[in-house]
Amino acid sequence: MASHNPYTEAGVDTAAGDRAVELMKSAVRRTHGPEVLGGVGGFAGLFDATALRAYTKPLLATSTDGVGTKVAIAQAVDKHDTIGIDLVGMVVDDIVVVGAKPLFLTDYIACGKVVPERIAAIVAGIARGCSETGTALVGGETAEHPGLLGPDDYDVAGAATGVVEADKVLGAERVAAGDVVLALASSGLHSNGYSLVRHIVAGRGIGYGDHAADFGTTWGEVLLEPTRLYTAPLLRLLSGDAGVHALSHVTGGGIAANLARVLPRGTWVDVDRATWSPPPVFRVLADLGDMPLAATESTWNLGVGFLAVVAAEHADAAAAALAADGIATWQVGVVRDGQRPDGDFEQGAKGVDGGAVRLVGAYADSGGTPAGSTGSPGNGAE
Question: pLDDT tens digits for 267-289?
């Protein structure tokens, strides 16, 4: 006689959760080096920090984030194997901003109903991103919330920890007038501004399974293009004498706000729009929304996923190194100090009283690589 399980009757299937863990185990284990102890399934992940003894003054860096409403598109088209890459991009790429090497990441998935294959696909994407950034996926949690979330609804979040030598921390205090600002190409929308994307698409009556004539595929495939991962190329760049003074991850808030966060007070930058052409996905969506590209600058990255502030004498070499790693890189501005011109500058952001940035000029015509680029923009996650 089958035993009575009131928890199952309440909508929570612990057996499905166990099945999901079994399906994801191999993907998670592939992110583990000898520093990870205990394997999969413990109450806490264990990471051997002995290597930190080699640091003179190791500083731990930490970051947490999610993917936002991009998950709604993954749910709508039942494609879940790339959302995890987006999560790693949002979390781990924030750590490299200060020059830190990522050590490990934990994830959290909340869902209305555990579908083992779906959960395993999400985690496989997280594991892929972790492998590409050199991050160990040491643990996580899948929580079933029936009644709070619909059967096909879920959200994902993650937290990561990295380490950097104290005297190698990047930031505004290293930046000086005359430094060059380099733009690193994005793979597309990344994981920001999807509430606007979804509003535009819904307003036009477009389904995610509909054919997107401008792209030769469905709208769902276009909008689920994974976030480019910058950590490994940037760490390779930082391992030499690259002259990098600050990095900025272009996420929510756009180019100007995120660059202003890593500039010292009293400095300013004019970012020249003419140095690149925003990729077609931004232009098409802006047209569908009946808005100029400039109106989306505080929402979308418009083709720039990262910014590097580099000593002028190192700028060409840094751009060439990143291009050799598959990331188109070009100069968009120069750091200035003293009296700044009149204009609509973005002054700091996220509580940071930093420098000031504005975008000037008109974007280059579509159809080519960024002006001054030392590599092709590329597609997909690195």
Answer: 999 999 999 999 999 999 999 99
